[in-house]
Amino acid sequence: KMASASGAGSAAALWSEVNRCGQNGDFARALKSVNKILQINKDDVTALQCKVVCLIQNGNFKEALSVINTHTKVLTSDIIAFEKAYCEYRLNRIENALKTIQSASQQTDKLKELYGQVLYRLERYDDCLAAYRDLIRNSQDEYEEERKTNLSAVVAAQSTWEKVMPEDLGLREATYELCYNSACALIGQGKLNEAMKKLQKAEELCRQSLSEDSDVTEEDIEAELAIIHGQMAYIMQLQGRTEDALQLYNQIIKLKPTDVGLLAVIANNIITINKDQNVFDSKKKVKLTNAEGVEHKLSKKQLQAIEFNKALLAMYTNQADQCRKLSASLQSQSPEHLLPVLIQAAQLCREKQHAKAVVLLQDFADQHPASAAEIKLTMAQLKIAQGSITKACMILRSIEELQHKPGMVSALVTMYSHEEDIDSAIEVFTQAIQWYQQFQASQTRGANPKSPVHLSLIREAANFKLKHGRKKEAISDLEELWKQNPKDVHTLAQLISAYSLVDPEKAKVLSKHLPSSDTLSLKVDVDALENSHGATYVRKKAGKLTGDSQQKEQGQGDVKKKKKKKKGKLPKNYDPKVTPDPERWLPMRERSYYRGRKKGKKKDQVGKGTQGSTTAGSSELDASKTASSPPTSPRPGSAAAVSATSNVIPPRHQKPAGAPATKKKQQQKKKKGAKGGW
C-alpha cells in the first residue's frame, strides 16, 4: 500500500521499497522498511496496517496481535477487524475470533469466509452450513471450488458426529477433495462399500491431479494420499478386516506425514485393534496422540475417544492409579457420559472389589436416569459374575423399558430356570405378553391382532409351561395360539394333551378337530425306517419259528446278548498245575516272605575291566545256569511245596530267564561304570 509523501524524500523511498517487496512476496524485507517509516511517524495508520500484514505473512501471529492491541486508538475495529480475527483464529483462540467478527461494524466478504471457518472449528455445523450457502450464492470469483469443498466438509461432519442424514448438495465431484468428503458422509451413514468406492475414485483423481505437476515427486503424492488411505483403513477396520487395516495404518506411519491430527487418529485406531494384546506397541502409539497441536486438529468426540482409550490402556497395563486419574478427569469433563464410570467399575472389578463397583454404578444410575438402563445391565453382569443370579434378575426386571423385549425375556427365563424358580419365569412371560396386548390395543383401537413377536412370546410361554409340567397354565396360551391359526395341528395336539388332565370331555371334543388318518398322506418306508442306523428296534427278516426251534432261537439270542469276557494274559512261565502265589499282587516289600535286600553278597564277584568285557566269573553270575539247583526249603506263604526236581516256579513270582535287572540295579551299575572316565 502506498502512502502520500509527507514531505520527506526518505519516506517516499521507503514506501516505494515496501510496495516493491510486497509485490515480490518478500515480506521480511518489507517489514524492515515499514519499521523505518514508523520511526518517522509512529502513529501512521497505513504503516501499522502494513506491519500487521507483513507479520501475518511471515507467520508471526502473536506479534501481529500485539501490534493491534497496543495501537487500539489508531487501529480501530472497523479498520483491522479481519486481521485481528485471523490472528486469533491461527492462534487457536476461536471464541475470541468469533467475538471479533461479530463486533465488526461491516461484514466484508473476507470476514464472512473467516466466520465460516470459525463456526466449523466450534462445531456449530448448522450455522456453518448456512454461512457457506450464503457465500456461494453471493460470490463469483476463483474461490468457488474451495467454498464448495468446505460446504461438503460441513455435511460430512454432520453425518459423522451428529448422525444427521446428509442432504444432496448437487455438487459435481470433480476434485479428490469433494470425493473424499462425500466418502466421509457415507461412512457416517454406515454405507461402507459405497464409501470405499468413493475413496478409490478420490485416490485416482488425486494421482491424476498431482502427476500433472512435474515438480511433484512420488513421495509427495503418497503424502497427499495418506489421509485417503487412512479412511480406507478405517473402513476395513469397521468391516472386521483388522489385519488389512493394521497393515495400511503402519504403511502410513512409515511415511511420517506432517499432519499430527492424522497420525493421532491412526495411532488411536491401532490401539483399538490391539485392545489388551500387544500393549507395548500400544504404549508407543500413545505418544503420537500426545503430539503438540493435536487438540486443535481433531473434533471434541475424537479427542474424547483418544482419552477413553488411554484410560483403558492404563487398565490393561495394570496402571490402576493412572486409570483412575484419567477416568476421573473424563468424568469431570463430561459428567453425563457413561464410559468413564464403566472404566472405573471395570478397574474395581480387576481389583476384586465387585461390591464397590456395583455401588459406583448405582450412584451414577440414580443421578442420571437417562443412562440407568445401560448401567443396570452392567450391574446385572457383575452380579452374574459373582454368582448372584437372583439379584441379577431383580436388577434386570427393574429396567421397565426393556421388560417386553424378547432378548430380556429370554435372559430372565434362562436365569430363573437355572435357579429352578419356574414361577418367576412364568411371571416374566405373563408380564411381557400383557405389555404387547396393551400396546396393540392402544395402536389398533380395540382390535385384537397379534404381532409376530407377540405370538412368538405366547408360543414360548406355552412350551415352557408344558416342559415343566404346568399343563393347566398352558391351556390359555394354547387356546390363543389355536384361535389365531385353527389349522395348526401341533398346537391342537398340545391343547388336547393339556385338557386331558383337566377336562377329559373337552379333550374329546377338541380331538374331533384333528385330521383323520385317511387325510394324512404319509409316504414312509417302514422297512427302511426300522433298519436305519438310529432305530432302537430292528425287525428280524427270518420267518416265524414254532415250538422248540423258537425256544432254541430265543436261547441263542440270549447267549448273543451276553457280553464276551476277554481272556486275561498269562505269564510266559505259567503252569496250570501249580497254585499261584496268593501274595503276588502285593508289592515285594509287603509280602510275608520278604527278607530285605542282602548287600555285599556278590561284591567280590563283580567283574572288572572295560565296559562289555567278560570275566572268568561271569558264568557263575549266569542265572540260567543256576536255576536248576533245587531250593533248600519251600517259600513261606506258598500254597503247595514244590518238588526238588520239578524245576517249576509259581507265576508272577519269578521273572523269566534272561530278564533284565531292576532299574535301581541298572542305575547302580551305570554309576560304577561312570567312574571309568565316561
Write up what this structure looks like:
By secondary structure, the chain is mainly α. Helices cover 63% and strands 0% of the residues. Among the domains are: 1-106, Serine Threonine Protein Phosphatase 5, Tetratricopeptide repeat; 318-402, Serine Threonine Protein Phosphatase 5, Tetratricopeptide repeat; 404-514, Tetratricopeptide repeat domain (Serine Threonine Protein Phosphatase 5, Tetratricopeptide repeat). Helix 12 packs antiparallel against helix 13 (242-254), helix 21 runs antiparallel to helix 22 (389-397) and helix 23 (406-418) runs antiparallel to helix 24. It is elongated, with a radius of gyration of 47 Å. Mean pLDDT is 79; it is low at 1-8 and 615-678. Residues 624-641 have a biased composition (Low complexity). It is found in: Cytoplasm; Endoplasmic reticulum. Its main location: cytoplasm. Residues 540-678 are annotated as: Disordered.
Could you outline the blueprint of secondary structure elements for this entry?
Elements: H1 9-24, H2 27-40, H3 45-57, H4 61-70, H5 77-90, H6 94-103, H7 109-121, H8 125-138, H9 144-161, H10 176-189, H11 192-211, H12 218-238, H13 242-254, H14 260-274, H15 279-289, H16 294-297, H17 300-316, H18 320-333, H19 339-350, H20 354-367, H21 372-386, H22 389-397, H23 406-418, H24 422-444, H25 452-467, H26 471-484, H27 489-502, H28 504-511, H29 526-530, H30 547-561, H31 623-626, H32 663-674
Helix pairs in contact: 1-2, 2-3, 3-4, 4-5, 5-6, 5-7, 6-7, 7-8, 8-9, 9-10, 10-11, 11-12, 12-13, 12-14, 13-14, 14-15, 14-17, 15-17, 17-18, 17-19, 18-19, 19-20, 20-21, 21-22, 22-23, 23-24, 24-25, 25-26, 26-27, 27-28
